[in-house]
Write a structure and sequence with these properties.
The structure is a homodimer. By secondary structure, chain A is of the alpha+beta class. Chain A has 19 helices and 28 strands. In chain A, helix 7 crosses helix 15, helix 8 packs antiparallel against helix 12 and helix 12 packs parallel to helix 13.
Chain lengths: ~575, ~575
């Protein structure tokens, strides 16, 4: 049995135990369903009167009490008639039985510690022995419609967390607490990075000056890395006739997910949900000699997707998505060098923030060659290139057969953040399909038309999503080069130290440091607390000592303290740190 | 009689003369209408067989011949019956007569030199004496539907140009010839700056690497000027719920001109045709103290307008318009300083390209105070500020009463280009309406809510349109700082001078000069011609002399020649020129 199966059985057994405990406390409870979920389980009950989070300790205590007697799950197959008789007062179970019968499946009942439920199975052999009573915890109560349909009755759902060991539960709780503190929606407001407007609509973030600064700096970093390897910026509109996507093949697949526009002349336009076909049209503007390739086009531009309101969340899931997108058009034989350049940019970019990358190469499945574009020979050659690039640049790469897109193999990157969560980030995709559909070629050495390939090369992918990950990864304490305010000057007394503080402020400002002067009438303690909330990397406290000696006392965000340094020395330190993006 | 009236009468008399001349050559010609237009006139004929541009000299000769006998226009009022009898074989004139009758207007016939036409009047007294036969010219033949309706018959339209003097005609022809050479659509293709795709659609330009570089540099220049006076960038989505425009008041006025979107959840969204309401929502995110004002938000972002296909033209009129937009939110009392800062940016920006600016202050009309928002006192005060700013910064400002927008006074700028054409460019508008509609305020010194004002401050307005103007103004020979390729290195012999040429190329490239090396096998003459077509500012020709002396020979685009200078000296010159944006 795999670890995942074992965990599933543990959590599933606990769902039964929860139902049994609730039934002991609330005799009238009608049981419905109780599946396992990520990190735990839940059970939905139909109750006469509401229960709340306050009731959970009592239920949990009851679970632990009866757990001792849960030594074995016994299963029994029953007829439809028997089953319906057993659950004659429970409309939910009757509905479930009808469904099982409809699917011509067997009806099974499972009993443990005297408690019986309609169930498909998948439990621990001996819950009393195998469940650590300190490794599970009831989490919270929520309302939930029967079958998720708002036309049905609202039930009471109790969520539980469950792991194999107490340590795992504790570590999960700690991570969750930390994640809540780092929630980018909360920090985004506190740090004044972005906002939403009801008049404009959900999923359409507005970026404030500070948030925009971060966006632009991130984008500038990626551009700096790209420029070094010959990328050029191009500019494209956000809309297109639908013919573009009919030609690219996207229309059939994505037409329901994109915003459609009917023009005054009755044409159907679409807001672009991706940039590749637009870039392909720029490539197609002229005939290229192989000597002029690769052409590498980059655009930081918004794409739009008609997401459902219920699925939107902060910057993680939005309707207006800014992509730092790029596409390389090159000969098949040049693709490896280009992909390696992209790989290096990904490593440098994510590495600079301390993310740990896990690359994953998606390959074709030779059993289903009919699903892919191009010959197996071409695929093997492309995959060999990608594999060599991955192996040369990472030690932890993994390969997955059959996960490639139909148009080519790809490398996806997962990034592990500061509290251990994994996020899907960049991807490098080789595309043999769009060049075919748009008839993109170059003239080779022999004077013949040669089909080119296209490489998709977004680094952040979505700037919004990357920002949400970065805010939570750094808990809002961005590296110096990215901090909207890098230094704050705090005079202890405005009257006595205000003028010296202004001089310092001006020196830093003129040296292009993003500096603020707190000349409010607050006490020093309050000034420092305010600056800490803003997560400002360096605070310069100005008092008599500093004024008299014409030196600075600098407090770093991480309790680093510099004393008696000159403004010039501090500037040198800042410039160095900014340059190194640390 | 004004000069414009006189010119109108001249051109109108020539339309008659054209009709008379055509009738003499083509007896069967049916006359229709012949109005004056900018720079001349036309007349539409229904002919049995086509005529072409080749026939124009003959017709022109005939006009000059009969002109001698055109000494006086005589008018005669006729009844409907008489008129219809006169034109019984001409369905066009019969239709016109019916219209005049329908409007209960008088029917007048005008006769000169024996030629009679249905006409409203407005001629010269003595064409033979007043028309200079060397000051008019038949221009071209075109097809035109009767009444501009494609369901009607296609007529033959003959265009003529006419001025008072021969010199004016010649100067117009010269300007037009120059304008054709400078046509941005032609140069845009030759210089590879932008392209269009049939799959994406008309009016949706795609900018190539070179065109995008120019866009970004122009935008960077504006941003540099703005940054100095405290602007901050913000970022906004391109769509919004229609509620935003219902609140701002734009929906009623512009709903037919914007792209509307029906979402999968059946909401009506719109693509933004302007940015002010979005910026207003960023301002509205929090409560501001007067101490935190002004807030100055800038975004370079595309707006979209559902223009009719027939009205689109190159970059001059597009559906995707990139605005270098900015809005200042400030107290009424701070508006003057802010407007002066914008005024200075406009002057610096347009001045750097050699445009001559003509500012125009649009004022309210005190007779119609009901049409305006706010009291006359506020208007007078706002206008006084704008007037003072204009007078302090320009000597040629003019004022126009009654041309203000309902929400506030404004200054518009016209820019005269290198061949004398005027273009409407930047505008500074004070807006007292949107702050009212969006309830935008600050907390003033007394702790009370105080309504703020909003200043609209786009510098280029539309980057596309500005680029079309700039391409034609410079004839594609952009100033050095803006040239996509600044220097081209041309080795005379690849074999003998290739290596030295590469060294020079590398030195310039490493110093951030946009340099290209022409290492093709073409002869020097061809290399130079190619570079001239690309309007590259500086060519470095590398031959034996340069290689042996380790110095450069540089040919400037304007026949400037530098000899025996070192690479370092040339670099210094380039850097200086780039810095000064000359």
């Amino acid at each position: 049995m795999t670890h995942a199966d074992k965990l599933h059985n543990l959590r599933h057994s606990l769902a039964h135990l929860l139902a049994a405990a609730v039934l002991e406390i609330r005799k009238e409870a009608k049981l419905t369903i109780g599946p396992t979920i990520e990190n735990g389980f839940y059970y939905d009950f139909d109750l006469n009167s509401p229960i709340s989070d306050k009731d959970l300790p009592k239920i949990e205590k009851k679970m632990k009490e009866i757990l001792r007697s849960w030594k074995e799950f016994e299963s029994e197959e029953k007829s439809e008639k028997e089953s319906k008789k057993y659950f004659k007062d429970n409309v939910y179970k009757l509905e479930l039985i009808d469904e099982i019968v409809g699917k011509k499946e067997k009806i099974t009942f499972y009993t443990c510690g005297g408690f019986t439920d309609l169930c498909r199975g998948g439990h621990l052999e001996n819950p009393a022995k195998e469940i650590n009573p300190d490794a599970f915890k009831l989490d919270r109560v929520a309302g939930a419609y029967w079958r998720g349909d708002e036309k049905n009755k609202m039930l009471t759902r109790i969520y539980g967390l469950a792991f194999e060991t107490k340590e795992e539960l504790e570590s999960y709780l700690k991570m969750r607490e930390e994640a809540e503190k780092r929630d980018h929606k909360k920090l985004g407001k506190e740090l004044d990075l972005f906002t939403f407007s009801e008049l404009i609509g959900a999923g359409l973030p507005l970026f404030t000056p500070k948030g925009t600064l971060i966006r632009d700096l991130l984008d500038g970093f990626v551009w700096e890395l790209r420029k070094q390897v010959g990328y050029e910026r191009v500019d494209i509109p956000h809309i297109t006739k639908k013919e573009l996507y009919e030609t690219s093949g996207h229309w059939d697949k994505f037409k329901d997910d994109l915003f459609q526009i009917n023009t005054r002349e009755n044409h159907v336009f679409a807001m672009k949900p991706m940039n590749c076909p637009h870039h392909a049209q720029i490539y197609a503007r002229k005939q290229w000699s192989y000597k002029e390739l690769p052409q590498r086009y980059a655009s930081t531009t918004k794409v739009y997707r008609d997401e459902q309101t219920g699925e939107l969340s902060g910057l993680s899931r939005v309707r207006s998505i800014t992509q730092d997108d790029a596409h390389v058009f090159c000969r098949f034989t040049d693709a490896k060098v280009e992909m390696e350049n992209i790989y290096k940019i990904v490593k440098t970019f994510y590495g600079s923030f301390g993310f740990i990358l896990q690359p994953r190469l998606s390959l074709h499945d030779k059993e289903n060659m009919g699903d892919y574009l191009g010959t197996e020979e071409v695929w093997l050659s492309a995959e060999k290139s990608l594999r060599e690039v991955m192996e040369k640049n990472s030690e932890n790469g993994i390969e997955v057969v059959g996960e490639a897109a139909f148009y080519g193999p790809k490398i996806d990157f997962m990034a592990k953040d500061a509290i251990g969560r994994e996020h899907q980030v960049a991807t490098i995709q080789l595309d043999m399909n769009q060049p075919e559909r748009f008839d993109l070629f170059c003239i080779n050495e022999k004077g013949e038309k040669e089909r080119v390939v296209m490489i998709h090369a977004a680094i952040m992918g979505s700037i919004e999503r990357f920002m949400s990950v970065l805010i939570e990864h750094t808990a809002g304490a961005f590296p110096l080069w990215l901090s909207p305010v890098q230094v704050k000057v705090l005079p202890i007394s405005e009257e006595k130290h205000g003028s010296f503080a202004k001089d310092i402020y001006k020196k830093l400002h003129d040296a292009n440091i993003r500096v603020e002067l707190d000349d409010s009438n607050e006490g020093l303690g309050k000034k420092i607390r305010n600056a800490k909330i803003e997560k400002i990397p360096y605070l310069i406290v100005i008092g008599d000592k500093e004024k008299d000696s014409n030196t600075l006392t600098v407090e770093g965000r991480n309790d680093e303290k510099l004393e008696n340094i000159t403004t010039e020395e501090f500037l040198t330190k800042l410039k160095e740190e900014i340059k190194n993006k640390k």
